[in-house]
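Raw record, unedited: Helix-turn-helix transcriptional regulator
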Amino acid sequence: MQGNIDNRPRLMSPKEASEATTMSRVLLMMMAKEGQFPAPVKIGVKRIAYVRAEVDNWINERIANRSN
């Protein structure tokens, strides 16, 4: 199994993604459908998760592109 450097799980729940971005789960899903946020991974019949690295990169891009 390939772990990541900080030992955090590679996937994050919609709740965790919402907390990390300060956006609602519904808004994140709408943004993902429009290609404005990383698409979730279907991990079960009624379960999705986001790839932590993709969400982290999305947040970092927003920080790097902010207007000063």
